[in-house]
Amino acid sequence: MAVVTGGGSGIGLATATRLADAGASVALVDLDGDAAQRVAADLDGIALQADVGRSSAWPGIVDAVTARFGGIDLAHLNAGVMTGEADITGVTDDIYRRTVGVNIDGVFFGVRALAPAMTARGGGAIVATASLAGLIGFSPDPVYCMTKHAVVGLVRSLSPQLAERHITINCVCPSIVDTPLIDDLREVLEGSGFPLIDVSAVSGAVVDLLVGDETGQAMVIQAGREAIAFRFARPPGPRTGGTVGQMPPPGMAAHDQG
Ligand SMILES: NC(=O)c1ccc[n+]([C@@H]2O[C@H](COP(=O)([O-])OP(=O)(O)OC[C@H]3O[C@@H](n4cnc5c(N)ncnc54)[C@H](O)[C@@H]3O)[C@@H](O)[C@H]2O)c1
């Protein structure tokens, strides 16, 4: 049984379709309740209208899905928005809060609510949709870039503790994907010959992660290439006498030194 946020459109719709085709029951969670309903009708799933950035939405999501399907095994925390603003002085409080709310809070509140439900099933798998903008600077939308870096950091930080619960957590980091999110940019992108990624490449990578054993990975997805795990460089360590190779003390264990 799988929960897909932002399942009414684009990447979420593609993942939900792929999962349903493989025999999974799907719950589509979307702010756009009509879109979620249409997809749910097509896939014989359920639709839940919700703002994933509100923590208060999540207990209801988990309860509704558990009541209908008996539990939750898989989740694609995918809902996200761009600000459309490169100039930081043009980012209003509303745009900022909405973007941080969906892109960061929606993933954090989602994982926090879903982990106990998956633990009750003996384990599970979570994939968040980050972005290539979570791995590079992206000056056309700095706030979007910030939120996607947060998703990558959260995924890498949570993987050890979720592994103890037999839950994998990974993220996908696609470059620009052909979905309604980029409708305003499509003409410019196509005019410049920038290669857009077909949504099926992203949904394929998401499902591979959901059914695989890897955890804590950020999978880069580029047009015409296989999805590939990003290799993070090690930052320099301390060079104070006697500290070479020293790890932070127990209690603030650095789980991920990769
Ligand atoms: N399209 C791209 O080029 C691209 C590239 C990298 C990453 N991404 C990421 O992929 C994810 C999906 O984007 P997409 O391209 O499929 O976009 P999309 O606009 O086609 O779909 C996003 C869906 O999320 C829903 N949504 C928005 N705010 C929500 C909220 N608060 N609560 C619940 N649902 C909400 C929308 O209603 C929509 O159905 C996003 O996180 C986006 O940042 C997209």
Secondary-structure blueprint:
Elements lengths: L1 E4 L4 H12 L4 E5 L2 H11 L2 E4 L7 H13 L4 E4 L15 H28 L3 E6 L12 H22 L3 E8 L8 H10 L6 H13 L6 E4 L6 E2 L29
Parallel strand pairs: 1-2, 1-4, 2-3, 4-5, 5-6, 6-7
Antiparallel strand pairs: 7-8
The structure holds nicotinamide-adenine-dinucleotide (NAD).
Molecular structure report:
The chain has one domain: NAD(P)-binding Rossmann-like Domain (Rossmann fold, 3-Layer(aba) Sandwich). Helix content is about 40%, strand content about 15%. It has an 8-stranded mixed beta sheet, with helices on both faces. By secondary structure, it is an alpha/beta fold. Helix 3 packs parallel to helix 4 (about 95-120) and helix 4 (about 95-120) runs parallel beside helix 5 (about 140-165). The structure holds nicotinamide-adenine-dinucleotide. Nicotinamide-adenine-dinucleotide (NAD) binds near residues 10, 30, 31, 131 and 176.
From the structure above, extract its key features.
258 residues; alpha/beta; Rossmann fold; eight-stranded mixed β-sheet; 7 helices; 8 strands; binds nicotinamide-adenine-dinucleotide
